[in-house]
Write a structure and sequence with these properties.
By secondary structure, the chain is α/β, with parallel strands linked by helices. The protein contains eleven helices and five strands. It folds into two domains: 129 residues, Response regulator (Rossmann fold, 3-Layer(aba) Sandwich), CATH 3.40.50; 71 residues, Winged helix-like DNA-binding domain superfamily/Winged helix DNA-binding domain (Arc Repressor Mutant, subunit A, Orthogonal Bundle). α2 packs parallel to α3 and α8 packs across α10. The two termini are 22 Å apart.
């Protein structure tokens, strides 16, 4: 599984609590996520929303650090809520809960700055890692999720888009292109470090530099560029 943040319980209750809002129209899903997250003493669930409008209001009211946001919700869908959160609560990092439906939805979520994607059948430990990674300012996608998103969105790419991607990637150093190629495979920083015989911290530095040079908001956008460029 891809891990860009600390493991469950890392840092323990000593630091400030990570404030989380859960937004899903299914009460059973919210209850399950709450039970998992509250097993970590460093995470506090400050609100639950059954629709997008409520999610935005709760994020603002509680200054939430992280939002777990379903796409399919009444009143205001998750994608519209994500766009609103970027405007009115930009400090709240949003992880989209999905079953990978229409690829256009995934693309819109990326364009609106989602901090990652989690499948609804994600393992409990991975859910906690994702929340901690997002709170630390990292994007979180498991390798499987990254590959799924990239495979969906890279299908039907045009030659013009491929040429544009190769032009952007040409600005990277050789080592940066190597790291980018591994992002395209969906590897975590730790996994990429082992492949390239570098420390995880060094890989993280490279990833930050790559995102800045390519003008990407997150790892998935960079992974898509890697695929388009043929890395």
């Amino acid at each position: 599984m891809g891990v860009t943040g600390a493991g469950p319980g890392a840092g323990g209750p000593a630091g400030p609590l990570i404030r989380v809002v859960i937004a899903d129209d299914e009460p059973l899903i919210r209850a399950g996520i709450r039970m998992i997250l509250t097993s970590d003493p460093g995470i506090e669930v400050v609100g639950e929303a059954s629709h997008g409008r409520e999610a935005v209001e709760l994020a603002r009211a509680h200054a939430a650090d992280v939002m777990l946001l379903d796409i399919q919700m009444p009143v205001m869908d998750g994608l519209t809520a994500l766009a609103e959160l970027r405007r009115s609560a930009p400090a709240t990092r949003v992880i989209v809960l999905t079953t990978f439906g229409e690829r256009e939805n995934v693309l819109r979520a990326l364009e609106h700055g989602s901090a990652g994607f989690l499948l609804k059948d994600t393992a409990p430990a991975e859910l906690i890692r994702a929340v901690r990674a997002a709170a630390a300012g990292d994007a979180y996608l498991s390798p499987g999720a990254t590959r799924h998103v990239v495979d969906q969105l890279s299908s039907g790419r045009s030659a013009v888009r491929n040429d544009e991607a190769r032009s952007r990637v040409a600005a990277l150093s050789g080592r940066e292109r190597e790291v980018l190629a591994l992002l395209g495979e969906g590897l975590s920083n730790a996994e990429a470090g082992r492949r390239l015989h570098m420390s995880e911290a060094t890989v993280k530095t490279y990833v930050s530099r790559i995102l800045a040079k390519l003008g990407c908001d997150n790892r998935v956008q960079a992974a898509l560029l890697a695929r388009d460029a043929g890395l």
